[in-house]
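U., I forgot to send this yesterday:
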Amino acid sequence: MAEAAEGPDGVRIIGVIDLLAGQAVHAQGGCRGGYRPLTTAADVSIDGDAAALARFYVERCGLSDVYVADLDAIAGGAEQDETVKRIVRSDARVWLDAGVSTVAQTQRALARGASQVVVGLETLTSFAALRDIVAIAGPPAVAFSLDLRDGRPITTDAALGDLPIEAIASQAVAAGAGTLIVLDVARVGSGRGLDWPLLERVRRAVPGVTLLAGGGVRDPEDLQRLGAAGYDGTLVATALHGARGAQLLRAGRAAAGHG
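Result:
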């Protein structure tokens, strides 16, 4: 397995694969209806092939982990089993976000080879359900995604939507999730950068948990700032697919002592 790439201050870089109708798509701004198959990553032809994108992250970028968002399953459709299994065969540790909200879905995710099961706020039914999932998989294998759109919680539960973001984060950690991901889908693929005040508020609210950020990472300076803010890792897609990807990875190798 490839060595994990880290950015400045040890911030882990996790490559993202967004799946829609069996293809890897270019996610932008959380508007899923407009997502189109990803054609290239750097100078590597992808043409919507999710396994090819996983190999790009592992072999070309030197990443050990990939985050797979099964957008069909998240929207209530069928889970993309065969595509996920092909990604797992790329020798990456797979973080699978597939609309998991039950113990049965958790067991299926683990059976497909997922190393980390992601439970998203968007599809969360209750924190009691999250506790049941943690009881089956164990805290280290469960990540809670604090799904946001322009800083607002994405949830069908009005009561949850009215809670402060810090309170949602604290409840997820209290339910046993070993990792928390702060993901603002409106910033995905936008080049807008991260919502620093929000990220800092969440870090203060959950000081002891492993914390990742997603949506908006652009360059090594963003990685450095994440490390300074106490974040352990970040989900990255668009910035790894172009010229910025080389800059991010050079920063990672330098921080790890391989530059």
